[in-house]
Fold this sequence. Notes:
The protein is an alpha/beta fold. 48% of the residues lie in helices and 18% in strands.
Amino acid sequence: FHVLVITGPNTGGKTVALKTVGLLALMMRAGLHLPASPDSQVPLYTGTYADIGDEQSIAQNLSTFSSHIGQIGRILTQATGRSLVLLDELGAGTDPAEGAALGVAVLEALLRQGPAVVATTHLEAVKVHAARTPGMENASVEFDLETLQPLYRLSLGVPGRSFALEIAARLGVPPSIVARAREILGPDALHARDLLAELASDRQVAEAARREAEGLRAEAAETRERYQRLWTELQREAAALRRRARSDAEAAVAEARREAEQLVARLRAAGADREAIKAFQRDLAALARRGGEGVAPSPEAPPASDLQPGQAVHLPAYRQRGTVLEGVAADGTVAVQLPVGKVRVPASQVHPAGPEEESAGVAAVAPAVEEVPLELNLLGARVEEALSRAEQYLDDAFLAGAPRVRIVHGKGTGALRRAIAELLRAHPLVERFSLAEASEGGSGATVVEITRR
């Protein structure tokens, strides 16, 4: 809406509301801070025009009505769509019917011109017209009848009552006169007044509910923001835990690989026979899986303090029996002598050997051997990657007891074939090697005979 009509009792605060609007508009134009809520919005008006107060003058032969009309005439000629117009007691000072008609006409003219208009009045016709006209809105100032004091609250959408009879009764007018005034006013007017009072009461209840809802909404927004912060922190901590777990797993895998390499080296140095090598091959696979997946402490593991030097023990993860060499270290690990050499493992992975195992002494348990393919395909691999894969493959083939394997490297430029040949020539596990027969790939593959020592 562009036109706001404020109604209510005398001393109810209508003029105060009018002056407050004008003052805030001028403060805004001067660049001053406004005493208003942070979400308030005030347009930048190019002009502010006001007709407030009584400008009657005997010297100038001006009555109250004349002074108001003269000021309104000047406002009508100067106001634009970017102006603010403030009119106090519109239509007052003359016959109520004619004053109301003139007030309605002035408001219609200003509505067409487009300025923002705030007007006060006591005239019912003006209230009714504002309620029925698009672009216009009623408002009322709230008033305490008990103390006859304004509450300085403005209620939009509800026309106000003048409370003339109630104020007169409280200010000492004889009750008989007030009663007679009610009779003269008539039942229809009284009914309309009661309806306005009921509407105003409902409006106050709705306003209180709105304020409560806004408070709850603000509280809900604050709670949502707080939980969003907590959720973000939890996600950050979870990501940190995942990174830490991944790092620990990678470290465990690296440690398992180092242990596997040491065990393989001990096997070679000990000149283990084929059966011992086959038995240990699965142990290496179990060791690699343990490094990748992590080993949970066995519920059957004895307390660390129960492991004593010289005690016969069983290592399920290694599928080996051995003897404890020394007490448990400060880091929770223990040194154990296995058939292929000394290893250090967590005490939780060491179990006391049963009676049959103790009588058998320190010996390796020979599990089934996982099969190793008799051919390694290196097609498409880079030289460094191919050499690494080939060396690992030769170790696996040796441990599995494979007598003869084939490495497919392709023909191409011959660079990969020459690199593989150099590796095989210096490898201690290779008995001899040669290019494959034409039926097995010719110069695109190399046949390798694994040493059987």
